[in-house]
Amino acid sequence: MTEVRLSSNQRKVVEFEEGPIAVIAGPGSGKTRVLTERIRRLLTKVPGHFRVLALTFVESAGVSITRIDHARSAQGARAQVEQQNYDILILDLVLPANDKSKDARPDVGYELLQELSESGAATRIVGATAHVETIAVYEQGFRDRTEQLLLVSPDSSAWRDSLHALLQQVAAASERPLGHDVDVCFITALKDTEYPAVVNLPVAWEAEKILANYALYRKGTIELDGKLRTVVLANTKQMGMVSACHLTQLLISEFRPRVIMMTGICGGLSAEVSLGDLVVADKSWDWQSGKWTGAGKFSHAPDQKDASRELVVSIKAVESEAPEIAKGLVHLTSPSRQFRIVEGPMLSGSAVVASDAMHEMFVAQHRKAVAIDMECYGVYYASHYAAEPKPRYVCLKAVSDMAGAEKANDYQAYCSALSAAVAVSALKKYFAEVT
To answer: What is the C-alpha to C-alpha distance for residues 265 and 281, in angstroms, rounded to an integer?
Structure first.
């Protein structure tokens, strides 16, 4: 092989063997040549077993090297994301637990991914690996939580092209003038009932599109308070807080909405609500957040997030229109009594609750808790920590069952349609006040 000519400083970089090294140099100084020579030397002349993943970033992607932070371990990544939020986070599936460890493992990377996807530390997370065997084991978990999963190979340019396109998209978004681009984003979690209920609203919808290779969405316009308003509807990839949080982050990043509303169905917890009532969640939290004690008891540690008060007030003001709204839903199977709008706390959890015995624990967490679902807290969490311009946000869901052992689907279509109809009426009142 022909010997590559290197300067004394370049050769020092190539031959350095005492751990990680950062090289800062200007354009045209030979950084790529030095990098490739260092990798060649590690693989051919340094004792030990090396598998090297090399990623390079260029200004043509719209991202300056000065805007990129690097962490070589899960511990280092945690420290970085505690200090600031990131537009995009590229996560190697195979990572050491800390900077001193030489044992890189996929379970460490997967555990970090779970933490990051729940924390909202990055708007977009991209998974990357050169290990085919790792993808075979962890592929579904990474695809559920990341925007892209890249199989990095020197024999393929597909991963590089995909990453380059995403970086350009993120860079372009960061240059947009500060302000809201869309008036309302609707979020649902059930594609067969909740999603169609919003589609059936008097909105001029465009065709479905795919958002960030993650979820389907529609964009459209609706007349509210005498003005034509832009709306977006997206359904979570799966039920649960993690998926709802991730989708909310994507919607905020892509559309910068003035308002985020989650509509659909929930389970009732209290004597304060009955089947068919509409619950507006003034606050929400993860009821599973806490620890199990040695005595076998659960000690909860809720992190409550409040809805935007002005939206809660607008929804409550719709109650006077209840009889008229109900007339528009007579074709659906519904409870015999007139629905009411109840304001109160809504707990969220990652599992479906079908046990009356759980109610006592829920009420112990908040004596005024009235409902439970699987997504509300995820939406509130992502919205609460969103960068400027922040959206207003609220979750309103109708009670389709009493969160017990006896569950039925009789009222799901009605409750989904009811929450969507109330949402539109509330938006008319809200926009009439704020503009």
So the answer is: 12
Distance of CA 160 to CAs 35, 66, 163, 313, 341, Å?
17, 20, 5, 49, 51
The pLDDT tens digits of the residues spanning 231-245 come to 999 999 888 888 999
Half-sphere exposure of 300 (CA within 13 A, CB side): 15
Using an 8 Å Cβ cutoff, are 113 and 141 in contact? yes
Write down all domains in the chain, each with its CATH number in brackets: 1-52 (no CATH), 57-174 (3.40.50.2300), 182-434 (3.40.50.1580)
Greater confidence (168 vs 16) lies with: 16
Asked if 108 and 74 touch (Cβ cutoff 8 Å), the reply is: yes
**Please, how many CA atoms are within 13 Å of residue 216, restricted to the half-sphere of its CB?**
12
**Rounded CA gap, 398 and 371, in Å?**
9
The angle at the Cα of 335, spanning 332 to 337, to the nearest 5 degrees, equals 125
Q: Alpha-carbon dihedral of residues 83, 87, 91, 95, nearest 10 degrees?
A: -10
Write down the pTM of the prediction: 0.66
Please state, in angstroms and rounded to a whole number, the distance separating the CA atoms of residues 391 and 232: 14
pLDDT in tens, 252-264: 988 999 999 999 9
Query: What mean pLDDT value characterizes the chain?
Result: 82
Would you give the distance in Å from CA 390 to the centre of its chain?
Answer: 15
